[in-house]
Amino acid sequence: MIEYKGVDYDDRHGGPFDRGSADSYYGRIRSPHVFEGDTYSSPMRTIEEMTNAEIDAYHAGYDYNEELGDKKVW
User: Where are the domains of the chain?
Assistant: First the structure.
């Protein structure tokens, strides 16, 4: 779990918070998505298939990493 702005988020690999922070880390645009299990080894759901809570968690993960400034150095 990661606490961000007073909310606890599940940071499991493939979850919405994780995917948001990963997109930020790799310099990708915001594109809410989530994996049902581990990243790339389970079905992916896009924004049209996500709950509002999952979308909020994705954006929180993206914002969290943006605030940290943790970026991939290519």
Answer: 2-68
